[in-house]
Specification:
13 helices, about 0% strand, mainly alpha
Length: about 290
Amino acid sequence: MNLNPRDQTLKGIGILVVATFFFAAQDAITKHLVQSLSVFQIVAVRFFFFALFALAFAARRVGLRRSFQSANLPLQVVRGLLIMAEISLFALTIGYMGLAEMHALFACFPLVITALSVPLLGESVGWRRWLAVAIGFVGTLIIIRPGAGIFNPWALGAISAASMFAVYNILTRKVSRDDRFETSLVYFGLVGFLSSLVFAVFVWKTPTPTESLLLLAISITGIIGHLSLIKALELVPAVILQPFNYFVLVWAIILGFLIYGEVLDPITLAGAAIVVGSGVFIAFREHKRKVADG
């Protein structure tokens, strides 16, 4: 059944919101697992299952041989190494921070993308978006409150992970100019798995039955999340979907409260609102610019 443009957009947004729930659930499970298992073991298992998914997905879409053909092989490898390092740092940091607090800080990554798109992609950023970036970083400072007695030094890990994820997104933009989406997906999974495995073999321990189930759960939630994201992007342009990615923070707040009893204080919530508001404004300006450019 063919949907009209409005219904198709609403369906795509709804699917994306579902994807953000699974990504938040994956992080909630990871927060529990890092208390007993090495980060690299967790990450290696996640990438192993994701690599299987990526290979199956690419084989069905374009064939395995074509999916490995890249015009940007060095960048694809660097991109894979970077996302492995970012996921590892995220997993390590979330063990020392609240789930919602971690995502409130991680929400600054679109601001970093905007700032870095000028020197790394040669894009132009107008004064309105620069102002939104500045205001967003003020929101980040409100969340971490440097100099205050409640400052958590692991907040710097969250910001570092967000910055790494921003650079990963910029590299993804660069390789997407020449490489297929399926190619980027395959190198994401394989490079991430092989590089994490190098570290995991030194810290591997046999997981308990409960830990095995949780490792399987984070792998399944990640795959479902990515499948939902891919489907949403097939229905709706990414620039329209971007603001709705912030639903992951909503889910993180809910899951953090239900599972770990976390409650964000009003100042942190205000800072998060500023960061999210800045990101949404930047997405709106980018959408407006693309519409103007035709």
